[in-house]
# Entry
Amino acid sequence: MKSVKVFLALLLSLLLIGLVAIPAAAGGPNLASLNARMIQWQERDNVIHIIVQEDDGRSIVGPAYVPDGKPLLFGFEWFGGDDFTLEELNAAYIDDPGHDITLEISGDLVVPEHSLKSFYQEAHEATPGRGAPWLWDHDHDGLGDRDGDGIGDLYGSVLFFRYPYPGLSAGTYYFTFTLYDGFAPFYSDTITVIVP
Ligand SMILES: [Ca+2]
Ligand SMILES: [Ca+2]
# Structure
């Protein structure tokens, strides 16, 4: 009888560890801190909004000047809003084998094109004003479009791409991100980073 109780207690504690460990792995402190950094893309030259928006580093704005050794963070969001469920957003990007996002680096560092698909985060439901600001505040200006730049809050289904990159030494670097659909490239964005 005693050994049965010990076994049950052991089983229960394993289950509890499992229940605690699963959400921690899915949304752990590293992702939260990355996401909290990402919404500062308008304030920090080493945090770069790729694919859309006007941010330093993008060809429509000009190079991002980043101090020697300062870690970079690249990111953007697939925004489903009220039109897509979380499942549909995940299915369209993370679960679709024909979709990919790749990176090729050229300039003073050459890295061949490779997939960054693992840097997508499972879609989440964003409600402005509810929960951590990085869940819904797109440009770190609080609830709504407080800075009046036309960039409001995220709402409904949102899927994050967040890609941290170590600090670089002096030089010029070109980060080319390419989106694939149906296994074919359909959009590229080249980010220029200059480390003086
Ligand atoms: Ca806002
Ligand atoms: Ca704004």
About this structure: The pocket of calcium ion (ligand 1) is lined by residues 137-139, 141-142, 144-146, 153 (CB under 6 Å). The chain has three helices and nine strands.
